[in-house]
Amino acid sequence: MTARPRSSDAPVAGRAAPTPGLRTEAALSAFHEEAKLGRAQDFRLLLRLWPFVAPHRRLMFVALGVMALTAGTALVRPLIMRFAIDHGVTVHRPSVLLEGGLILAVVVVVEQVLTFAQIYATQIVGVRAMTDLRRRIFEFIHGLRLGYFDNQPVGRLVTRVTNDVDAVLELFASGALSAFGDLIRLIGIVALMLALDWKLSLVAFAATPPVAILVLAVRRRAREAYRDIRTKTARMNANMNEQVTGMTVVQAYGHEAGAAREFDEINAGYRDANIRAITYESVQDAAIDTVSAVCLASLVVSLGYHPVSFGTLVAFNAYVVQFFEPISALAQRYTLLQSALAGAERIFGLLDTDAADEPRGEPAPRKVSDAAFELEHVGFAYKPGVPVLEDVSFQARRGERIALVGPTGAGKTTISGLLLRLYEAETGVVRVMGDDVRALERDELRRRFAVVPQDVFLFPGTIATNVAASSKPDRARVREVLERIEAWELFASRPGGVDAPIDEQGSNFSAGERQLIAFARALYRDAPILMLDEATASVDSATEARLQRALGELLAGRTSLIIAHRLSTIRAADRIVVFQRGRVVEQGSHDELLALGGLYARLYELQFARAEAGAEPARALA
Q1: Cβ atoms of residues 529 and 448 within 8 Å
Q2: Which DSSP string do the residues of 536-550 spell out, in sequence order?
Q3: SS3 (DSSP) at 524
Q4: Phi, psi of 405 (to 5 degrees)
């Protein structure tokens, strides 16, 4: 439950998204636009979707079988009409018409029942497969190194899980997989028309090559248009997330107009991308309808030179209509396929990201030591060539209280990220209880820590679920930890008590109340190592006094790492480690470091002495 690195240690991109309306156009494009994708490999993308469909393949094969039967019933209808007309209407036999009508009705009913089964089975397969795909993306995102998120707008990742997966789902929901049945219908129609009258068939098919040429011409342009739509959708989602998150700053600094201009540009790009896609789709549909009309007109003209029975003419007319129906459907489904493949391209682009939270190199062997944690010659940089830590070495014995202090940007908060393996050390070894952090499963490693960050994040739920960090809290234990920090009465007095709802990011709680919940969360975790990262920076004096009274019991028997805390806690530390420009420059107790007269003594004189004199302490150590 630690916060991401603040500006003191992390690169600018490691913080929340930049404030809307405050960026240049170049910065806007660099932050939001995604890498250009290469030439699409349609078949390869479809194959990559197979592992998500495979668990439901039996139902999918049933759906494909039903598609074939549905296509067969559709092909039979014109033959029944031809028989009824030639043997009923022309020879005045009402019984044949009645028989043909009844058979046709039965065939239509059977066809509709099969269509229902086909659509139902196809969409069930799609929903289940996309549920598995969403779960895979969600789990993959949680397995990425934290550094990956430093340059990723939140909205872009949300788009991968929502809009892009929905685009792939359209393959199933819109019946795009019915293309299999459409192909069977086309083959059957061509075979039956040739069997009925091959000369008339050639006349009907004469106008079809233009359709094939058109589809080939539109295909690449349509793919590019739908790729652009997916990119613009991600950019719009990222911008909206940023706008809402930074609303306080936007309104406080009067940048509503600038934010609106930025959104208008993104919105216009999204509109233009959709217009291009609509244009290609409209051209395709209009051309197919035109060719269909030309074919029907050709049949009428050819009757003057090649007479056929009235029943054959009706059957041919029905087959021509049926012939262009699946072609039109295939064209529409091809449009959906382009959108789906563009979404799949983005999804698998994310899943192919080489940013998995895997250890770099072989873990060091386990070390027998009484140290709770230690760093040996550790180096780290958020950006290549810009080191944050250089050759850092220190350790904390079990039960020892260690405080980290130093100027802004010295690398203090980065230490907590390396201990939790939120980031991977580039050089050196980070050990926790003798184990190289790279040798431990992430869950096992992080169970050894309880973290109280400065920037507390609360999940929507209740006070109890946030204290327990679980949807099923131990209510007795929740009360116990709240009583230990003397916060039970504070929260129990709220409407609903500890079941009081928490809005998004805890916006209905004060900063001090959110900090108390984070403190209780650490107590509830009851881990052997405690991290306090500016843990009382957001609370008032009365709340801090309440926390200070609980700290003695909380820290007893535990190792604690205190990052740039207020004077009272720092002075109580067993050892203070002083950082400057990513290096450890001093270590010792408060009195020893004052006597040394180095950096700590100067910081103390500049900041802490004023705090003891009653002035508000400076925040430069944050």
Answers
A1: yes
A2: TTTS-HHHHHHHHHH
A3: helix
A4: -135, 165
119 vs 176: CA distance, rounded Å: 10
Q: Could you give the CA distance from residue 289 to residue 4 in angstroms, rounded to a whole number?
A: 57
Phi-psi domain of 428 (left: phi exceeds 0; alpha: psi -120 through 50; beta: other): left
Token pair of 14 as six digits: 């490691």
Cβ-proximal residues to 177 (8 Å cutoff; 6+ apart), any chain: 60, 63, 64, 67, 122, 171
Judge whether 248 and 303 are in contact, CB under 8 Å: no
Q: What is the 3-state secondary structure (H, E, C) of 96-118?
A: HHHHHHHHHHHHHHHHHHHHHHH
> CA–CA separation, 442 vs 139, rounded Å?
14
Supply 526's token pair.
């009851």
Element (H, E) at 563: strand 559-563
Predicted confidence at residue 547, as pLDDT, reads 65
The pLDDT-based confidence of 2 (bands split at 50, 70, 90) is: very low
DSSP state of 144: B
The b-or-e profile of 410-419 (16+ CB within 10 A means b, else e) is: bbbbbbbbbb
Count of other CB atoms within 10 angstroms of residue 108: 14
Q: What is the pLDDT at residue 12? A: 35
Does 181 have pLDDT greater than 90?
no
Count how many residues are written for the chain: 622
> Which letter does DSSP use for residue 618 in this model?
P
Paired sense of beta strands 559-563 and 529-533, if any: parallel
pLDDT of 441 > 90? The answer is no
DSSP string covering 1-59: -PPPP-TTTS-GGGSSPPPTT-S-HHHHHHHHPPPPP-S--HHHHHHHHHHHHGGGHHH
In Å, what is the CA distance from 307 to each residue of 81, 313, 401, 451, 544?
19, 9, 102, 88, 100
d(CA 300, CA 326) in angstroms, rounded, equals: 22
The whole-angstrom separation of Cα 295 and Cα 320 is 8
**Do residues 437 and 445 make contact, with C-beta atoms less than 8 angstroms apart?**
yes
Structure tokens at 565: 């805390």
Residue located via tokens 């909206």: 240
Residue with structure tokens 């959108």? 339
Report long-range pairs for 526-529 (Cβ below 8 Å, ≥24 apart): 526/450, 527/447, 527/448, 527/449, 527/450, 527/558, 528/372, 528/398, 528/433, 528/448, 528/558, 528/559, 529/372, 529/373, 529/432, 529/448, 529/449, 529/450, 529/558, 529/559, 529/560, 529/561
DSSP code for 365: P
pTM of the complete model:
0.64
Task: Map tokens 């030309």 to a residue.
Answer: 294
The pLDDT tens digits of the residues spanning 229-261 come to: 878 887 888 788 778 777 877 777 777 888 888
